[in-house]
Amino acid sequence: MSDPVSALAGKVSEGPVRIEDLAPRAMITVRGKLSDTAITEALASVSGLAMPGQRGIAAEGEKRLAWMGPDEALLILPRAGLDAALSGLTEKLGSAHALVADMSDARALFRLTGEDAALRDTIAKVAPVDMMRFPTGEIRRTRLAQIAGAFWMPQEGTVELVCFRSVAQYAFDLLSQAAVGPRVF
Amino acid sequence: MLILTCPCCGVTAEETEFHGGGEAHLTREGPGSDDAALEGYLFHRENPRGVHFERWRHVYGCGKWFHAARDTATLEWFGFYPAQTSEPPEALLEQIRQKRPGWRWRDFA
Ligand SMILES: [Zn+2]
User: What is this structure's pTM?
Assistant: First the structure.
């Protein structure tokens, strides 16, 4: 089995906002009504995180559990935990009406770090989101210039962002350029 | 610039995060329908100046389809409601009656 590599092999852009292509993690999409406690309990039990409410994301270490829609959740884990999480979820879900899909290789994951205002400014330039009011603990699926993406702030001073792997270079270049130049905030 | 609120994920965002899906509450005519009904389903659309009902999709967000009611002249939104219905909710219709007395759209008034 070949070793997984991230889309841009750990590329980094230094500047007022540091942009880093993160090493591969396990990303699992679970589709199924999140009003069904059998599904949310399976997610909580496998991840060790409480299932967040509408547009929420729970974070602990490298683990993330996100509300992506009324019938979609995203679980991010260290890559080594992929197989155990997939089988654990399938087992815990039992006969619940749900689908578990390994999306680990489908997306690129970036971490942006820097001064809070500079970070918010960078995102505000590329997404139609009111970054003045964007709170930690919320995930926003949106448009990043011409591509779809999602981001959240695990804590002040850090933004994590995902997009499809096929557009990773576009996202990296877009963010790197947005990070320099005139400031709005 | 239109600003919509998605009833499925609660996000309020401008229209480039969404995609318009045309007129709402069409009846799909297919095999067994007569020619006039099929023609109407394929080609005939409302084009009102005023109250209008549309389908929209939160294409860059949660991905869900939903319904919306707005005024095509003022661009005021009256409300957003789930896709899983064949008619606007009564509370929304009542709100439009208050704001636009005498309005009519197809069989709704
Ligand atoms: Zn939505």
Answer: 0.93
DSSP letter string, A78-89: EGGGHHHHHHHH
- What does the domain layout of chain B look like in residue ranges? 3-25+34-99
**How far is residue A51's CA from residue A80's CA, in Å, rounded to a whole number?**
22
A181 touches chain B (CB under 8 A): no
CA pair distance B6, B83, nearest whole angstrom? 11
pLDDT tens-digit map of A152-185:
999 999 999 999 999 999 999 999 999 997 887 7
Highest CATH level, class, for A12-23+106-180: alpha beta
- Interface test mutation site (partner B, options A33, A141, A147, A164, max chain B beta carbons within 10 A): A141
CA A136 to CA A97: how far, in whole Å?
31
| Touching A: B residues 43-72, CB under 8 Å | 60-64
Choose among A55, A68, A142: nearest Cβ to B17. Answer: A142
- pLDDT given for residue A1 in this prediction: 65
Backbone phi, then psi, for B62, in 5-degree steps?
-75, -10
What residues of chain B lie within 8 A of the CB of A161, using their CB?
none
Q: Tokens 């009656």 identify what position?
A: B97
Is some CB atom of chain B closer than 8 A to the CB atom of A145?
no
A25-105: CATH class: alpha beta
Pick the more confident residue, A3 or A122.
A122
Architecture of the CATH domain B3-25+34-99? 2-Layer Sandwich (3.30)
Residue A140 contacts B where some CB pair is shorter than 8 Å: yes
The CA distance from B56 to B82, in Å, is 10
